[in-house]
Amino acid sequence: MYNLNSDKRVREKDIEKALINCFHRNKGNYGRPRLKKALSDEGINISEGKISRILKENNLIAKAGRTRKPKKYRKTEDQILQENLLLSKDMTNLKVNEVWSSDITEFTTRSGKLYFAGVLDAASRRLMGFHMASNMRQDVVHQAIKMALCNVEDPRGIVFHSDRGSQYTSNATQKLLKDNGIISSMSRPGKPNDNQVIESLWNTMKTEIGSMSSYQRTEATSMLYEHAGNYYNNKRIHSGISYLTPMQAYETLNRGASTLSPEMIIQDAKHPIKDASHS
Predict the structure, then answer these.
(1) Could you tell me the end-to-end alpha-carbon distance of the chain, in angstroms, rounded to an integer?
(2) CB 145 within 8 A of CB 119
(3) How much is the pTM?
(4) Does the first or last residue of the chain, that is N or C, have fewer Cβ atoms within 10 Å of its Cβ?
(5) Using CA atoms, how far apart are residues 94 and 195, in angstroms rounded to an integer?
(6) In the chain, where do the E strands start and end?
(7) 152, 97 Cβ separation under 8 angstroms
(8) Which residues are paired to 127 by β-bridges?
């Protein structure tokens, strides 16, 4: 302790010495606020600004100090609207591979969560690609995109719409899209209906498949693979595409038809898509 007369002004050198001693006595663990309080308890009043100057002049750096969090960049409403390319499209009059809709949903199994990432062609409702994993890391989305790419000759110009989840906004995902000439589009925050086409698919799948809580994750994966890749795409008729199957609708529209009708069913559209990434 320093016997300093409170009625007298403490000389600068004494203050500096007291500060340095306090710093070393506390093994460099005290930053400006704690040093100010410790010195105040000794009868020395000093500002944090002066403490900072003295520490800097003596090359003293506290081990841990308060770090100011960087300001999070927030996009303007106009920027968000510009990123949603579906707002300017007539979703009732699309060509195949004009818009792909993507999202991740989850199923509860006996051995834990199973995450299903899908890429859906908005015009035909064909599930172009999908992948499943026990986690929601971005790779589950990447594998679904890669499967979808295997099912189209030229992906350039396709609008790829998703929500703003980190799996989609990541640099790696955006690079994968850009490298293949695909244009990214994203929903407005808190507006799941912007991606209604695939949200509807999840509701349908979960209603038809039912609970998977009694199945192991491996069993559930096999069931979902069969349902999505075979039954849904090739056998299940869809009211939103004139009661055709997604594969029939895809082939019909791909051959230049401007509308869909049951009379335009293509008889040879019976080949399930292949998932080269599935194991």
Answers:
(1) 72
(2) yes
(3) 0.68
(4) C
(5) 15
(6) 99-109, 112-121, 127-133, 159-162, 183-186
(7) yes
(8) 120
